[in-house]
Amino acid sequence: MSVAIYPGSFDPVTLGHLNIIKRAARCFDKLIVCVMVNSNKTGMFTPPERVELLRRSVKRFPNVEVDFSSGLLAAYAKERGANVVVKGLRAVSDYEQEVQMAVINRKLNPELETMFLASSEKYTYLSSTIVKEMARYGACLGEFVPREIIADVERRMRELERKDG
Ligand code: ADP
Predict the structure, then answer these.
(1) What is the mean pLDDT of residues 92-103?
(2) Which are the catalytic amino acids?
(3) 127 lines ligand 1 (CB under 6 A)
(4) End-to-end Cα separation, the chain, in angstroms
(5) Number of domains the chain is built from
(6) Among 31, 55, 66, 151, which residue is least crowded by beta carbons within 10 Å?
(7) Within 10 A of 51 (CB to CB), how many other CB atoms are there?
């Protein structure tokens, strides 16, 4: 069985992520979307909340599973029997860091290959950071995040703004 992992912070999941998930799910028997915790970043949503939003957004893909890991990707992949990491590439600016990560991951786990999917041109500009900016200014989020989670993003932005004063 071919198993691939699509790692990221997904804070929150965007239509750009979902496009990569949909296309990668066609290439493998099973795709594990894994929320990786990056301790340097405090997020809009907690990791368990991100997992829940992702699960809701990928319900229609039967071979997609959503998980969470605070460990090393190379070790997590071994544990889950996955030998491919899927990454989305938006622009040249993504390239340098992603190739560096791919080389390190293969050093740590020689069986692990990284495969890059070019972002659909519709989503090259889209990132979770852009979504947060748009939500802050009250823009319509329908073009940016899965419809299943729009209300959650809007609600969380209002809560954060109230907290900040
Ligand atoms: P973000 O940069 O949006 O915070 P993540 O850290 O969650 O994203 O990214 C997880 C993966 O998804 C990375 O491989 C990233 O390059 C990819 N990705 C993010 N947004 C898009 C997009 N709009 N199109 C294609 N790939 C994307």
Answers:
(1) 90
(2) 17, 41, 90, 128
(3) yes
(4) 52
(5) 1
(6) 151
(7) 19
Please give the distance, rounded to the nearest whole angstrom, from the Cα atom of residue 16 to the centre of ligand 1: 7
User: Which stretch, 37-41, 137-141, 159-163, has highest mean pLDDT?
Assistant: 137-141
What pLDDT shows up at residue 165?
Answer: 66
Question: 78: CA distance to ligand 1 center in Å?
Answer: 23
The CATH number for 35's domain is 3.40.50.620
Main-chain phi, psi angles of 133, to 5 degrees? -60, -45
Structure tokens at 111: 């069986």
pTM, two decimals, is: 0.94
Distance between CA atoms of 90 and 111, rounded to whole angstroms? 26
Digit-coded pLDDT (tens) for 67-91: 999 999 999 999 999 999 999 999 8
Q: How far is the CA of 158 from the centre of ligand 1 (A)?
A: 24
8 Å CB contact between 128 and 11 = yes
Buried b (16+ CB within 10 A) or exposed e, 17-26: bbbbbeebbe
**pLDDT, average across residues 119-128:** 94
pLDDT digits (tens, 9 = 90+) for 126-155: 999 999 999 999 999 999 999 999 999 999
State whether the beta carbon of 8 lies less than 6 angstroms from ligand 1: yes
